[in-house]
Amino acid sequence: MITLKGDTIYLRALEPEDLDFIHQVENDEAIWEISCTQTPYSKFLIKQYLENAHKDIYEVKQLRLVISNYSDEAIGLIDLFDFDFKNKRAGVGILIKTPSDRLKGYGNKALELLIVYCFTHLDLHQLYCNISEENEASIKLFSNHGFEKIGIKKDWTFVGGSFRNEYLFQLINN
Fold it and tell me: pTM for this one?
């Protein structure tokens, strides 16, 4: 049986009630670097996105899940993107919204649950992620789950008036 439940958090599908949460996340300029966002999103657009969130990962090539605590509060998001069924791989992104909720193990458990889901339920062979070389917390998180740094993309992102390098990490299911 596939479970997306841990001791402190669980992963769930997006719901219409997540409109305000998603709107806050997508419009938080402090995290635009992570999501490569350049402009704000309206509630109207996010509502349309939520109305289509039920579509199958095989059709839309992505899956966004809410990281929720057992008080049913949304605390973050974990995404599969560039889902490639033929080559059995997908990219992973994770965000814990509020800084005070970070470094409490929520991201760790969410990533653990997602990895098991991807390798057992989706039958993926590999996962990858892109992490800014300054993002030590994410480097540690993904490394602790077996992701290996396999490359560096020099001057990959332009942030705050300068270019930053980005690492490519990969986890292969053997």
Answer: 0.90
